[in-house]
TrEMBL record:
Any one Pfam family match given in the protein's UniProt record, by short name: Radical_SAM
Primary location group: cytoplasm
Gene designation per UniProt: miaB
Residues annotated for [4Fe-4S] cluster 1 binding in this entry: C14, C50, C88
Function, in words: Catalyzes the methylthiolation of N6-(dimethylallyl)adenosine (i(6)A), leading to the formation of 2-methylthio-N6-(dimethylallyl)adenosine (ms(2)i(6)A) at position 37 in tRNAs that read codons beginning with uridine.
Keywords: 4Fe-4S, Cytoplasm, Iron, Iron-sulfur, Metal-binding, S-adenosyl-L-methionine, Transferase, tRNA processing
Named cofactor requirement(s): [4Fe-4S] cluster
Cellular component per GO, a single term: cytosol
Stored NCBIfam families: miaB-methiolase, MiaB/RimO family radical SAM methylthiotransferase
Coiled coil: none
Species for this entry: Pikeienuella piscinae
Subcellular location: Cytoplasm
Similarity remark: Belongs to the methylthiotransferase family. MiaB subfamily.
Name of this protein: tRNA-2-methylthio-N(6)-dimethylallyladenosine synthase
Enzyme Commission designation: 2.8.4.3
Length: 445
C-alpha cells in the first residue's frame, strides 16, 4: 500500500472557513491524504483564505512566497508539492492568483470545495493550474462525511452568503447571495454528528439568523427558531449555538427560543458596528441604535443571563468624535461579555471604499478607548462568574499534565484538573478564578 500523502491546511478567518477546511480535509482523505500540522515537506498545501481583513490578498501572496521555498525544496528532493488557494480570496482574485504566483496549482472558491479531489487529480496530471470559482448547481454539502468519531463540539453550516450589503463589507460579493440549506439536510447532518459523539453543534452562516430553509415535508419554509427547536429534540444533542447574526433578522420565534429551549446556550453574537444613527445609516445597516438596544432588552427578557457579544467598526468614513461617543454610550448600555472591534479600512469594490477616511491617528485613538471599555466589561463578566458553579463541556487536554479545557455555557474557556476520559462530558464545575480570556475551575463535588 502506498504511504499516505501529507496535506497541510492553513485556515484564515471565520468559523465557516474552519468548517470548509474540515470538509476539504475529509474530501482529500478519500484521495489518500492525511492532515499534517506543518507545511514543511507536505505533498499538498492549501490556504483557506479570508477576505474580510485589510490587505487580505496581499497577505496570501506573501504566504505563497514563503511556501514557494518549501515547494522548491520538495522539488529539489525529486518530489512535488501541490499548492492550492481556497476560500474568499480565491473567489475574489480568481485567475489573478496564478498570474501573480505561478506556483499555485489550484484555485477553488468556497462553493466548490467538494470538487477538490478531482481538481487535485487534474493538477497532478498536468496541463496548468485548475481554477474553479463558480457557484455550481451541485451541492457541496452532499459529499459524504467519513464515520470517524469526532470532537464533542462541531460546526454545521446551514446558511451561506449575505444580502445585506453593509457599505463596508465584502461578504455579499465574495460569498454571494443568501442560500439556506433545507431543514431535512441540516437535521440529517446533525443526527449523524451526534451519532459520532458530538454533543454541541454551532450552526454557522454569514448571516445565520436569516436562515429560511425548506421544511422537511416541502411545505413552506422554517425559520432558525423552528430549526433550533427541532434540533433540540435530537437525543444526545445537549448544546446548540449559532453565529453570526444581523439584528434585523432576529424574529419573535428565535427570541422566544432563547427562553424556551434549554439546549440553546445563553450566548449571542449580535454585531451592531456603531452606536450612531447617522453612521448606521451611512453603513446601510438599516436599523437604529435604539432599535438594537430594544432588541437586546427583548432577548434578555427571554433569557436574563444571556452573554452578549458584538462587532464594532470605529472610524467609518465621516464618523465624528460625537458620533463615536454614541458608540461608547451604546456599549455602556448594552454591556458586552465579549466583543470584537476594528478600525475601519476600505475594501475595494465596496460602496464605502471611495469615501474620505477619518484621520488614522484619530481612528486609532478611538479604537483604544472602545477596546478599553469593552475590555473592562469583559473582565467584569469574567469576574462575575467566580463563585458560581457552571456546566462545562470538556473538550480537550490542556497544556499541563492532568489538565482539561472545556467551555462554559457562555463560551468561556474553562481550565481545570480532570481525567482525560471525561472528554465529551458536561460536568459541573466550581469557578475559582478568572483571567481576561479564560476561567479556572474545580470539578464540583
Ligand atoms: N473594515 C473594518 N472592519 C470590517 N469588518 C467587516 N468589514 C470591515 C471593514 N471594511 C468587521 C465587521 C464585521 C466583522 C466580521 O469584521 O465588524 O462584523
Ligand atoms: Fe457583511 Fe454582516 Fe453586513 Fe452581511 S450583515 S454585509 S456579512 S457585515
Amino acid at each position: 500500500m502506498a504511504a499516505p500523502k501529507k496535506l497541510y491546511i492553513k485556515t484564515y478567518g471565520c468559523q465557516m472557513n474552519v468548517y470548509d477546511s474540515e470538509r476539504m480535509a475529509e474530501a482529500m482523505a478519500g484521495a489518500g491524504y492525511v492532515e499534517t500540522a506543518t507545511p514543511e515537506g507536505a505533498d499538498m498545501v492549501l490556504l483557506n483564505t479570508c477576505h474580510i481583513r485589510e490587505k487580505a490578498a496581499e497577505k496570501v501572496y506573501s504566504e505563497l512566497g514563503r511556501i514557494r521555498k518549501l515547494a522548491d525544496a520538495k522539488r529539489a528532493a525529486g518530489d512535488r508539492m501541490l499548492v492550492g488557494v481556497a476560500g474568499c480570496v480565491a473567489q475574489a482574485e480568481g485567475e489573478e492568483i496564478v498570474r501573480r504566483q505561478p506556483l499555485v496549482d489550484i484555485v477553488v472558491g468556497p462553493q466548490a470545495f467538494h470538487r477538490l479531489p478531482e481538481m487535485a487529480a487534474r493538477a497532478v496530471a498536468g496541463g496548468g493550474a485548475v481554477i474553479d470559482t463558480d457557484f455550481p448547481e451541485d451541492d457541496k454539502f452532499a459529499a459524504p462525511r467519513p464515520k470517524a468519531r469526532r470532537a464533542p463540539a462541531a460546526f454545521l453550516t446551514v446558511q451561506e452568503g449575505c444580502d445585506k450589503f453593509c457599505a463596508f463589507c465584502v461578504v455579499p460579493y465574495t460569498r454571494g447571495a443568501e442560500i439556506s440549506r433545507p431543514a431535512a439536510k441540516v437535521l440529517a447532518e446533525a443526527r449523524d454528528l451526534v451519532a459520532r459523539g458530538v454533543v454541541e453543534i454551532t450552526l454557522l452562516g454569514q448571516n445565520v439568523n436569516a436562515w429560511r430553509g425548506e421544511a422537511p415535508d416541502g411545505a413552506g419554509r422554517w425559520g432558525l427558531g423552528r430549526l433550533i427547536r427541532e434540533l433540540a429534540e435530537i437525543d444526545g444533542l445537549k448544546r446548540i449555538r449559532y453565529t453570526t447574526s444581523h439584528p434585523n433578522d432576529m424574529d419573535e420565534d428565535l427570541i422566544a427560543a432563547h427562553g424556551e429551549v434549554d439546549a440553546l446556550m445563553p450566548y449571542l453574537h449580535l454585531p451592531v458596528q456603531s452606536g450612531s444613527d447617522r453612521v448606521l445609516k451611512a453603513m446601510n445597516r438599516r436599523h437604529t441604535a435604539s432599535a438594537y438596544l430594544q432588541l437586546i432588552e427583548r432577548i434578555r427578557a427571554a433569557r436574563p443571563d444571556l452573554a452578549l457579544s458584538g462587532d464594532f467598526i470605529v472610524g467609518f468614513p465621516g464618523e465624528t468624535e460625537a458620533e463615536f461617543e454614541e458608540t461608547m454610550a451604546l456599549v455602556r448600555e448594552a454591556n458586552y461579555a465579549q466583543a470584537y472591534s476594528f478600525k475601519y479600512s476600505p475594501r475595494p469594490g465596496t460602496p464605502a471604499a471611495d469615501l474620505p477616511m477619518v484621520d488614522p491617528d484619530e481612528a486609532s485613538e478611538r479604537l483604544q478607548r472602545l477596546q478599553a471599555l469593552l475590555g473592562a466589561q469583559q473582565a467584569a463578566f469574567q469576574e462575575s462568574c467566580v463563585g458560581r458553579t457552571l456546566p462545562v463541556l470538556l473538550e480537550k487536554p490542556g497544556r499541563r499534565a492532568g489538565q482539561m479545557i472545556g467551555r462554559s455555557p457562555y463560551l468561556q474557556a474553562v481550565h481545570m484538573h480532570a481525567d482525560a476520559n471525561l472528554a465529551g462530558r458536561i460536568v459541573e464545575v466550581d469557578i475559582v478564578g478568572a483571567g481576561p480570556n479564560s476561567l479556572k475551575g474545580r470539578l464540583a463535588a
